[in-house]
């Protein structure tokens, strides 16, 4: 049975999540060793399956050596087998599986699985729900270990609430799911940290950009993509203005 790109991404993210839960629930590993085993196992499954299902496309994975062959491709899958390896190793819920597709440098299709949540959840770029509007003070998801100073400044300027959370995918999906309104990151990331989450967020009508307001570009020679803003569209101008002012 042929699948659309989004259907393939969602299916792979869901199965990779189940594999990761099996590795975790074996009880044989803990902490960093569990994280390393999860990364390796999920990466093997995702890489082999994508190469079989989309042999003409490029591929960039956090857990595989980057050969640069992808630079000559217009379609490139960008994956993070375990986003939030620390949280996964600590057996927390705030980790994710990212399977994204960039076409001509734009995060176009993809899925983010949140296997650690009860029952597991997969959000993708085809099954889109209306945005949930929050009437109170804005809520900002921030790193549970290294909160970005810009995010803290935005929260203070808006009188908002900060919610510490693990992986980038978990934070981005919190905005999609209406659990918060703003995710601002400035502490350094790579393309695999945001490609799938940005594709899903864009499909759901959210604002996605660099923190200077410029476009996010993928499948670049240097895969470092240091900052990110995902937020409710009506908040974007205000957030970007606060960041630009250095408040």
Automatic annotation (TrEMBL):
GO terms for biological process: 3'-phosphoadenosine 5'-phosphosulfate metabolic process; sulfate assimilation. Gene3D superfamilies: 3.40.190.80, Fructose-1,6-Bisphosphatase, subunit A, domain 1 (3.30.540.10). It holds the Pfam family Inositol_P. InterPro entries: CysQ/Inositol_MonoPase, Inositol_monophosphatase-like. GO terms for molecular function: 3'(2'),5'-bisphosphate nucleotidase activity; metal ion binding. Keywords: Magnesium, Metal-binding. Its cofactor is Mg(2+). It comes from the Bacteria. Mg(2+) binds at residues 62, 80, 83, 193. This is 3'(2'),5'-bisphosphate nucleotidase CysQ. It comes from Pontixanthobacter gangjinensis. The lineage of its organism: Bacteria, Pseudomonadati, Pseudomonadota, Alphaproteobacteria, Sphingomonadales.
């Amino acid at each position: 049975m042929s699948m659309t790109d989004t259907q393939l991404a969602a299916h792979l993210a869901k199965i990779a999540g189940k594999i990761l839960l099996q590795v975790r629930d074996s009880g044989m590993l803990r902490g960093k060793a569990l994280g390393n085993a999860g990364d390796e196992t999920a990466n093997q499954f995702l890489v082999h399956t994508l190469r079989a299902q989309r042999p003409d496309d490029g591929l960039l994975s956090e857990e595989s050596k980057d050969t640069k062959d992808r630079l000559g491709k217009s379609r490139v899958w960008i994956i993070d087998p375990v986003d939030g390896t620390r949280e996964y190793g600590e057996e927390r819920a705030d980790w994710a599986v990212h399977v994204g597709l960039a076409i001509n440098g734009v995060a176009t299709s993809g899925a983010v699985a949140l296997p650690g949540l009860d029952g597991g959840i997969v959000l993708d770029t085809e099954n889109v729900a209306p945005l949930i509007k929050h009437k109170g003070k804005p809520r900002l998801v921030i790193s549970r270990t290294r909160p970005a100073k810009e995010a803290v400044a935005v929260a203070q300027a808006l009188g908002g609430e900060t919610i510490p959370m693990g992986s980038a995918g978990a934070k981005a999906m919190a905005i999609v799911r209406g659990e918060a309104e703003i995710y601002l990151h400035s502490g350094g990331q790579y393309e695999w940290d945001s490609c799938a989450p940005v594709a899903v967020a864009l499909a759901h009508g959210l604002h996605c950009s660099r923190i200077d307001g410029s476009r996010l570009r993928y499948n670049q020679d240097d895969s470092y993509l240091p900052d990110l803003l995902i937020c409710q569209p009506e908040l974007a101008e205000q957030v970007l203005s606060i960041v630009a002012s250095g408040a």
